[in-house]
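Bug #2210: token dump truncated for Transposase DDE domain protein?
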Amino acid sequence: MNATAILNKILPIVSPNMHKTRRKALSACVLSLAQGSLCTVTSIGRGIQSNAYEKHRIKRSDRLLSNPNLRRESIFLYAYICKLFIVRARPVISIDWSDLDARGQYFLIRASTAFEGRSITLYEEVHDKSTKEKQKTHQKFLQVLKALLPVKAKPIIVTDAGFKTPWLDEVIKQGWDYVGRVRKPRKYYDSTQNTWHCISSLYPKASSNPISLELTHRHSSPITNQFVLYKSSYKGRQSTTRKGQKRKSGTSLKAARGAKDPWLLISNLPVNRHFARRCVKIYETRMQIEEGFRDMKSSRFGLGFELSYTFKIERLINLMLLTTLTAVLLILVGKVMELSGYAKRFQVNTIRKRRVLSHFYLGKRAVMTRFEISKNEWRDGIRQLLQQLEKRV
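Reproduced locally. Full output below:
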């Protein structure tokens, strides 16, 4: 069973009410991306498997990106992804913003769940500068996400320091828990000295053993929350130039200084003896959403969205849907390849105890080389995948 057959079986289940012609066009464009086409209108069109002239194939992808019906039906596709991957009552969901172009005109807010080194996109929205990081935008996003998730799900929302106090309040209104990060120059109240101090004064106490703290913060309307202070061991990573020298640009040095800061995490999870370590473990999964953004944008290892110059928000919404469906397809194929024992055939070294390639890249190589997966292997792989999702912490 190749990727075309897999996709043609999945899409009718996901979108039973979608017009047959539109579903075929969607399948053709997703398969084009999965087989290595870059995330641009012309590249997707040229990669469509058809006897038509390239001119007409490009026009086919162009019409799909402008299709308003696909935008309306996209919510059902995201709902199916949530149904497939959110099987636990307490899923961990990371949410973050990402720039969609170098001009800084359009931005993506995405909710995803961690899955063995990569993230599975559950829901996403495209916004311009006028609605980016606004409270109403966040309110609507969380409300839609809640409607998509299973009724019994009570997620733990993970965000970085860019999501401030109003965001955490909105998460609480949904009846959910959160794990976030606080960075300087935020302040906390020191009751022993009756004064406010910058949180950087706590940094010297940080170590590889997480410390649970109860601090009063919010200078305008003080409130007490549980915090966790943690600093991981030095990993020796250095950003170097092509000549092997340390980068000394302002951007690189600023990022290096920020990376040296310990984590000061804030959470409303139940406090017990495992609280601190649990918060650290949950927050560590947040980096996987960054890997998902790289898979979408990278033209070398991912889908090549960085080369797209689409500037209409309506087309961007459909283009994001294509990248999400492609990523889910590739991760599913990669996971089935691993469970069937074929992953070792695609890696350079002879390591047999673990998988070296990500599920995304493994699936991409399998599709590009037209690797055949039998129906029994596909069924067994999906069955094992669902069992792992139910057991996953």
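Output looks complete on our side. The CA atoms of residues 100 and 360 lie 21 Å apart. Marking as cannot-reproduce; reopen if the truncation happens again.
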